[in-house]
């Protein structure tokens, strides 16, 4: 055992002699050439800035190559998640029309409230869709009459999809045919209203910019307390006459 210990000690001494220690100058150079964590962070920041600048030069509008930001990461969506669904009356909504810069811009459609603050250029004061802000304008979304139809009342709106009665054309149908045809037209018109409204609802539901933040609270039977809205002139002007029987048969054949 003693011989083995002596041999290992001699071997260590020989290795120490054969590999002399670094001089202070060489050690300093080695330390200067070492890559630190701070250097890595600086390099990463530089690459991110370079990537963002290149993206803006190429796209002329985005620092992240037009990649859509997930809706749940936006402040409005985070606030809505923390606060939970809020209930608003139609009177409450009026305070969120964008005229008060300390409050978000809200609009409602089909009773659901959305935060459209990120679209303030469109929904804020002076914007092309400002009339939708601070209200539930479901009827206006469908009719396109933005001044007259800032209301959630959809009663009678199916008229815009109904053909105009024409005594000359209607006389070509039998009374039974005309009755059946009018029932079909009413059913289709109601479907068109639902389809048009759903298109706008889907737009806001799928938007990453406009999170859902609450619902509109109304009393049961609120519609009956007001007169049925009159069909606006623009929607009335878009109505067409009913097709004669021959044209109706050709449509069915298609």
TrEMBL record:
SMART domains registered for this protein in UniProt: Cyt-b5
Q: Which InterPro entries match?
A: Cyt_B5-like_heme/steroid-bd, Cyt_B5-like_heme/steroid_sf, MAPR/NEUFC/NENF-like
Bias (Basic and acidic residues)? 1-17, 216-227, 244-254
Region: Disordered, residue numbers: 1-25, 215-254
- The residues covered by the Cytochrome b5 heme-binding domain are 88-217
Supply one GO CC term from the record.
membrane
Return the similarity comment. Belongs to the cytochrome b5 family. MAPR subfamily.
Name of the protein = Cytochrome b5 heme-binding domain-containing protein
